[in-house]
Design goal:
Strand order of the largest sheet: 1-4-5
Number of strands: 5
Helix content: 40-55%
Strand content: 15-25%
Largest sheet: 3 strands, parallel
Radius of gyration: 13 Å
Number of helices: 4
Distance between the termini: 34 Å
Order of helices and strands: HHEEEHEEH
Shape: globular
C-alpha cells in the first residue's frame, strides 16, 4: 500500500515508477540491471537493511535517497550525507528529496 502511495506521489511530480521491490534480492537485481534515473530505498526492507542495494547504485552512479522512520541519524556513516525522507512524508518532501538527490551542481 505504501508503494502505491509513493507511485501516486511520483506521478504527481511527473516521474514514472520502474520497479517496486519487497525483498532485498529483487532490489539488488533491479539495482544491477534496470535503467534508473533515481532509486528510493526503504532503509529496512522486510527486516533487512538495504545498504547492499545502495552500494550497487553508487557503483553505477545512480542517485538514491533513503526513506526511513529512523531519519538520517539512523544511517551508517558512509551514507550520512544521502538525502533521506522521514516517514511519513508528503509529496512536497518527496519532490525536494528527489531534487537534492539528483542535483549535480554540488
Amino acid at each position: 500500500m505504501v508503494a502505491m502511495l509513493v507511485e501516486d506521489m511520483l506521478g504527481d511530480l511527473g516521474h514514472d515508477l520502474v520497479k517496486v521491490a519487497a525483498k532485498l534480492e529483487t532490489a539488488l537485481s533491479a539495482a544491477r540491471e534496470e535503467a534508473l534515473d533515481l532509486a528510493i530505498l526503504d532503509l529496512n526492507l522486510a527486516g533487512v537493511m538495504t545498504y547492499p542495494v545502495a552500494d550497487v547504485l553508487r557503483e553505477r552512479g545512480i542517485p538514491l535517497l533513503f526513506s526511513t522512520g529512523y531519519g538520517n541519524g539512523g544511517l551508517k556513516e558512509a551514507y550520512s550525507n544521502t538525502p533521506t525522507l522521514q516517514k511519513p512524508f508528503s509529496t512536497e518532501a518527496l519532490g525536494k528529496a528527489i531534487r537534492n538527490a539528483t542535483d549535480t551542481s554540488a
